[in-house]
Amino acid sequence: MSALTICQLEQKATLVRQLIIESLNRAGSGHSAGPLGMTDILVALYFNVLNIRPDQPDWEGRDLFVMSNGHYAPALYAVLAERGFFDQQELNNLRKLGSPLQGHPERQQVLGLETTSGPLGSGLSQASGMAYVLKYLQSKPHRFVYCTLGDGELDEGNIWEAVMFAAKYKLDQLIAIVDRNYIQIGGSTEEVMPLENLADKWTSFGWHVQEIDGHNMGSILNATSLARATEGQPSVIIAHTTPGKGVDFMESDYRWHGKAPNDEQTKQALIRLQSMDGKLEPC
Question: Where residue 161 sits, what CATH number does that domain have?
Answer without folding.
Answer: 3.40.50.970
